[in-house]
Description:
Distance between the termini: 24 Å
Amino acid sequence: MASFITPAPVDVEIRAGTADDADALADLFWRVRAENAATIPMVVHPRETVAPFLASVLQTAEVWVATVGGDPVGFAAVGPDGDLDHLYVARPHTGTGVGARLLAAARDRHPEGLSLWVFTSNTGAVRFYERHGFVVVGGTDGDNEEGAPDLRLEWRPPSVSADSGR
């Protein structure tokens, strides 16, 4: 199987998420959303609901955690439907390859392809996904809990993309 691993700083480790990660990932999730409120709408649920939500994600999804010195600096989750439901990286680690490594872990486990939703206003994320081979296949004017316009993106490896055209 081809590997999509992208180099990242040597001190970054990518590992499977566990139930013990729920509180740390909730803190990371909330912090990233708050730091990027200009481009990512803030969570519409109270802060205290985020850890139980992420505990359920850790039970039902494939989750990868990027750590530096044992501390989570990013995570990605692919849900049971095969969607990349979460990919968050702490601001100091944005642009260092951490997001690419997390995305590579998801692609390695889902070589048939991935789909995701991203807010239209999150132009940095849209560019990131397009650089990594995702293409826009649809979108909404805000059919989500945040009421914010979003885009549907897909990544398919060349062999799957070619086969789908038959």
